[in-house]
Amino acid sequence: MEVSETISPSRRRAMEIIENSYFKNAITTLIVLNAITLGLETVETLPPLLHLGIKFFDIFVVGVFVIELLLKLYAHRLDFFRSGWNIFDFFVVGVSILPGSGPFQVMRSLRVLRVLRLLHVVPMMKRIVEALFKALPGMGAIIAVLAVLIYASAVMATSLYGRTDDPDVHALFHDLPASAFTLFQVMTMDGWRNDVVQKVMDDGHPYAWVFFLSFIFLASFAVLNLFIALIVEALQAEQDERTEEAIEQIEDEIEDTEEKMLKKGDEILSVIAELKAEIAELKASQNR
Known about the structure:
By secondary structure, the chain is mainly alpha-helical. 80% of the residues lie in helices and 0% in strands. The longest helix has 80 residues, at 208-287. The radius of gyration is 33 Å and the shape is elongated. The mean pLDDT is 81.
């Protein structure tokens, strides 16, 4: 995050603290430990003393997170809210300090969102999440294609299998929403053979497997591969961008080094010229 060059010593000190590797590692450790204790807190068979210790540790963790947030706010001021990750941290810490009773009872379950802070504290996780966000527009297009495919297939399935006296098959394909939901189940391949296809085939449609296998191939395999290809492309683009930034940084450093060497070379040449002039003067004085 870019900050102004003219900052007070106290703000500079706050920046040094939050950017310190030991401080970052301590925060990451607390996030992991807090994730473990939040899970242990759901175990009712734990001794009451351990539950009490977990409660105090939770208060300690929230206190550390609040201090970290205040340091960031003091160091970056309004620039703090230019980062989506900082806004997420602000929301998570805000939820953590709300009371867990009364109208805020539902907020208590949101404390587990603290675990998601690992997504931007750990660099590799942050890269993956940022690549996923960059891939969202492409994902929207793929989801639109999938929706059209399910809609068209649902219309066909309703026309082919909806008019039946079999109550099981009728429940699966009696109208468009029911057919779309059934095909979504088939797409996930959750009990598609026995719960859907076999019932349709037993109802007098022996070649129904052709329709459903074609749908599975298009909806599950092809579209899923498109999702994977899109994510891989986004990750590769993120890596290429980082590589280009690293190359530009190296090129800038090389240019700076060349400029410094040229300046030093000019200085050396000027010194040599002065020495030659002095030697010439000395020779001239001796000849006199």
